[in-house]
Amino acid sequence: MTHARDNFIAWLRNAHSMEEQAITMMTAQARRIENYPDLKERILLHLEETRAQSETLTRLLAQFTGGTSTFKDMAAKLAGTAQGVSGMLTSDAVIKGTIGSYAFEHMEIATYTVLIAAADELGEEEIKASLEAILAEEVAMAEWLEKHLDDITRIFLMRDERDLLAKR
Ligand code: MG
Ligand code: FE
């Protein structure tokens, strides 16, 4: 199962890089939201979960490789930073951000579904269980966003119509 092991390690690395990017993006998002307190609170909660996910992935990689492998993904972190601080906000920034978050959570769901299948093939039951716990958090975040996209859009439109600050 050498190839399966190598693929699994590469996918763990990608997942870690994805989570580091998520931390950067959600930090920037939470910082700028002012008028959508429920959204802000949910992002901050998921930010905490995401920090723990990133640490879990570091631990899983060390566990799987016997501590011989570490993550080097500064590039992804910097890419995330660039997206997070990219200057002017569009007038519908909160909507664009929420659409982006919804898409990102689904990328994470797909990533962990792949990792769980690979861990299962490799007979790594403990690692699989940790990945399933992360997947449950991604699904919960995706479901929250799906449930609240309607409200957020209506609040945005109402605020924008009344010339209240709507974009954040
Ligand atoms: Mg995540
Ligand atoms: Fe997530």
Q: What can you see in these coordinates?
A:
The termini are far apart. The chain is elongated, with a radius of gyration of 18 Å. With 168 residues, the chain is mainly alpha-helical. The chain has one domain (2-161): Ferritin. The chain has five helices and no strands. It has helices at residues 2-32, 37-65, 74-84, 93-121, 125-161. Helix 2 (37-65) runs antiparallel to helix 5 and helix 4 (93-121) runs antiparallel to helix 5. Magnesium ion is lined by residues 19, 22, 50, 53, 108, 138.
**Could you tell me how far the N terminus lies from the C terminus, measured between alpha carbons in angstroms?**
49 Å
- Quaternary state of this entry equals single chain
Main β-sheet description: none
Number of helices: 5
CATH superfamily caption? Ferritin, core subunit, four-helix bundle
Which ligands occur here?
magnesium ion, fe (iii) ion
Proportion of β residues? under 5%
How many beta-strand runs?
A: 0
Tally of separate domains: 1
